[in-house]
Task: structure prediction
Amino acid sequence: MGQALLSQVRVSSPFRLRTDLHLARKLWHMATGLIGLAAYYKSHLTIESVAAILLIVSASAFLVEYFRLRNEKMNQLVMFILKPVMRESEKNSVSGLPFYALGVSLSLFFFPERIAILSVLFLIFADPIASFCGILYGRDKILPNKSLQGTIAAFSVCYIVTLVYGLIHASPSMSLLMFAIVAGVIGAISELCSQFVDDNLCIPVISGLGLFLLNMVITVF
Result:
């Protein structure tokens, strides 16, 4: 594993490719999500209020991206400030931040609180861990940028997150176990969909919808 990690270190550019491990970006992804959830619980704001705030953040971020991509000096400044968490491809395309805020906002708007929070937890943990495992161990491709190993990691993370989250909000039961297994599949599918749509948008929305429908069949939350 040590050699695999070293092979991912880029010295020719300060920015990383999608195929690089980019640990700083993955840690930033998880940290911002967890801090956001902690702020939500501490603030005592309604879920609708938080969703509205995030929608404003997303719209503002898209506006900044619009001007950044049309102004070279502004682009250079933003890339310099966010250099540790930016990808090479984002120098000339929209970054993941506005999609992150939009995906979480839509999930909070459209789904019940516990389902929405669970879908956000999928985004926080499954996305970076699946990417990490796929880059290091992804030998069997099932889509151009998706591997069997990364998908198994996504399933495992979503299953464990659902089980732990379920034990906080519900009693241990076979229903919870079955819910967690199917939720793992839903999370893995939503992560695969990021082949076609930005992962920060599709994971909370698609998994949120799947979890909402699942909860109608196996009521846990």
